Amino acid sequence: MIVKLLLDKKREGGELAPEEIRALIDAYTRGDVPDYQMAAFAMAVCCRGMTAAETHALTDAMQHSGECLKWQGPSADKHSTGGIGDKLSLIIQPLAASCGISVPSLAGRGLGLTGGTVDKLESIPGYNACLSLDDFRRVVSECGVSIAAQTAEIAPADKKLYALRDVTGTVPSIPLIVGSILSKKLAEGAGTLVFDVKCGAGAFMKTRAEACTLARALVDGARAAGRRAAALVTAMDEPLGWTVGNALEVEEAIGVLRGDNGQDARCRICGQDARHPDHVVDEQNARHSEDVVELSGELATRMVALEKGVALEEARAMCRENLANGAAWERFAEMVKLHGGDLEAFASRPRGEAHVVAASRAGYVARVDAEGIAKAAFELGAGRAKSDDTIDFAAGVTLAVAHGDRVEVGQPLAWLYAPTRPERLADAARLVQGSIAITSEQPAAKQLILEVVE
Ligand code: URA
What is the pTM of this model? Predict the structure, then answer.
């Protein structure tokens, strides 16, 4: 293979043969193709695109650059393209497992404004996300679900190429994104893949058209590789649920899994867990994470329906029942235990002081800007700018209001937590104030699931 000739061909808009793509990816993974040539390749793909056959060959080559896992019986996983307050994996993965499906889920850490599922789970004291593949297999076989950190053995070509794309302006290319996401998910070995493609200001895909194109390409690519697949394109203009920040999001997810979200309301004064006897709570203040419950249910429903071959209604009923009867919660608790996590220590962790952001005018909440809330959580210490930065698990934002709510002057809009960076509270509070638009007219209800791609 002469790499320069492949680059010439792609630059001129030609179609590469599967063997050419495989040879390029294999040589790059071995270190025989330098980064400058691979960066030129990525840029040529960004500008010229790829045919479905090329995308399939790229995905296949990256998938097979490392280990490919296999599972007995039904297996499925869900992948989200990343959103603000997106704690859904913590609910969906154990929920699907409780319906009799193995859920091997390799997840990432957060970078920039988007949080990572692994960071969220690591906010549970003792949770070890860095399992060997053998331990990952053992946890899945013992409790049906494991959420662990991506290992070096899975799709190493993608690890190398993604890092290169990140610094060469070549991330926004549908074939490269599809190859990157699918190579990792296919290597996990699940029979069904369900994608939550986020769309909006707080997402990677800003427009509905772009998100639908990505969703279609992911579903087609997974099917071309012999898996069952579906995608939901979902709104990400406003955060999902009430919390943005690692431990706060785990707490909210646990509330959904235990079914006590809402009764377990936040204190009206300080925003802390209302089960604490000194806090002030009224039923009006008891809020359910309705969007989180709806979307978790719909994504898990698709995993169960596709993998078990049952109708959506039957799968939906199974998911509702297992969320209500505690079966999904038991799977989650079992998974955490097998990963070494301590949920009691998590429940009694120090939360730090809550700083209230209050409404400066009365009216209706017309918009809670996901990106602005994410920036505030980042400022408070919940995110990392570079992959080796440390994060503060306790930091973040708990919203007190949602789209459409009526608020009065002085009423809490949000509570901020910044145990290790109290000096950032004022800036974060300004960001939160600027992110919550209050108008005199009640806004129209928002739609969460924008498209279903099957
Ligand atoms: N997430 C990935 O894993 N890869 C991409 O290319 C983009 C988002």
Answer: 0.94
